[in-house]
Every structure is written in structure tokens, then in C-alpha cells.
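Researcher: We plan to redesign the surface later, but first we want a full-length starting point. C-alpha cells attached.
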């Protein structure tokens, strides 16, 4: 393979990956702050007046930026159906991006042994239509 073709191929693949990653794109990601605390999860939506919930609600096909932290010990935020997991660490902010592609009800699980109540550290997650998300945010 010619070196120029290799460089061009790497450039194209890199551009595609970068376009799908982070905050690239025309619609900014939905921001959700995730706070872990023995033995519960709290979800804060800064773009919606800091609406706070014990249930994670996300609109389908909307990239979501999760910023995580913990108030006590290390927790690990995991929604198995989303295919990603990230630690929530006291005093440190960690970030992952997820774009839900299926409507439905899922479970948020702590995947890090965090104490005696670890097995009970779960929350509901719902992926809904954009209209349902707006209604939920408005409290309807």
C-alpha cells in the first residue's frame, strides 16, 4: 500500500471518529450530572433548571454527556444496555458519552463494591421519545 493512501485512510477514519465523539455535531449533548452516594444514584439535568431525579430519563437518539462524581466512596455507573461504564470518584469528575438507540426501561447498576448495601444500589433508567422527555422535564 502506498504511504499516501495509508495516511489518507487514517485521516478519513480519524475524522469520522472525531465527528461522532465528544461535543461534535449540530445538537449539543444533553448534560446529565450523576452523583453516586451509598447506596443511591442522583441525576441532575443542568440544562433544565437543575431538575434532580432518582430516575434517569433520556430521550432516544440524543447524545448524552454524563459527568460523574461521588460524595463518599468509589462507585461505578453502569447501564448494561448502554454498553459503557464509568467510575464515580469522590472529588474527581469523570465523563462518558452515550446515545441511547432503543426505547425502554433499563437498570442503572453500581458495578464497584461500595459497601454493605452495594447490591441495592440501583436506579431505574428510561429511554423515551423527545416529546415524553419534554413532558417529564416539565413535570407533566
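Model: Full-length starting sequence:
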Amino acid at each position: 500500500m502506498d504511504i499516501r493512501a495509508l495516511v489518507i485512510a487514517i485521516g478519513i477514519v480519524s475524522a469520522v471518529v472525531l465527528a461522532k465523539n465528544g461535543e461534535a455535531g449540530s445538537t449539543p449533548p444533553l448534560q446529565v450530572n450523576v452523583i453516586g452516594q451509598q447506596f443511591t444514584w442522583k441525576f441532575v439535568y443542568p440544562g433544565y433548571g437543575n431538575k434532580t431525579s432518582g430516575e434517569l430519563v433520556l430521550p432516544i437518539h440524543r447524545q448524552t454527556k454524563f459527568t460523574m462524581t461521588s460524595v463518599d466512596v468509589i462507585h461505578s455507573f453502569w447501564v448494561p444496555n448502554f454498553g459503557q461504564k464509568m467510575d464515580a470518584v469522590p472529588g474527581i469528575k469523570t465523563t462518558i458519552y452515550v446515545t441511547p438507540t432503543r426505547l425502554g426501561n433499563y437498570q442503572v447498576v453500581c458495578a464497584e463494591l461500595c459497601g454493605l448495601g452495594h447490591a441495592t444500589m440501583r436506579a431505574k433508567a428510561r429511554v423515551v421519545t423527545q416529546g415524553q422527555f419534554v413532558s417529564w422535564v416539565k413535570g407533566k
